[in-house]
Fold this sequence. Notes:
There is one protein chain. The chain is mainly alpha-helical. It has a single domain (about 10-110), classed as Arc Repressor Mutant, subunit A. The chain is about 45% helix and about 10% strand. The chain contains six helices and two strands. It has helices at about 10-20, 25-35, 35-50, 80-90, 95-100, 100-110, and strands at about 55-60, 60-65. The protein has a two-stranded antiparallel sheet. Helix 1 crosses helix 2 (about 25-35), helix 1 (about 10-20) packs across helix 3 (about 35-50) and helix 2 (about 25-35) packs across helix 3. The protein is globular and about 40 Å long. The termini are far apart.
Amino acid sequence: MTGNWGFFTNHAHVLICVAHDPGARLRDIANEIGITERSTHKILSQLVGEGYVVKERTGRRNSYTVQKDMSLKHPLVEEQKVGELLHVLLKMKSPKDRREGPSERRKTIRPG
């Protein structure tokens, strides 16, 4: 396979991370996606500004809530809701589980 590309934007990746862990820190989201904290902050601010995510201060940390009834932005999919996309994508294992190689997954699946 040639080239380095993916099916989802970094905005989608941030949204997925926030939906998976509403209390995630910017640093954790950035590391998970492979972008800078500054880029993560900018994307999350855009998602909050557009109403896709609600940010709430909890003590010294922020927590985030994805607004699942919001429509996807692109005209090809604007009739679909964010929650419908997340429902499909979050059925997959957690991001940390996906990083394990096949041998590690087999070890966790097979009984002792």
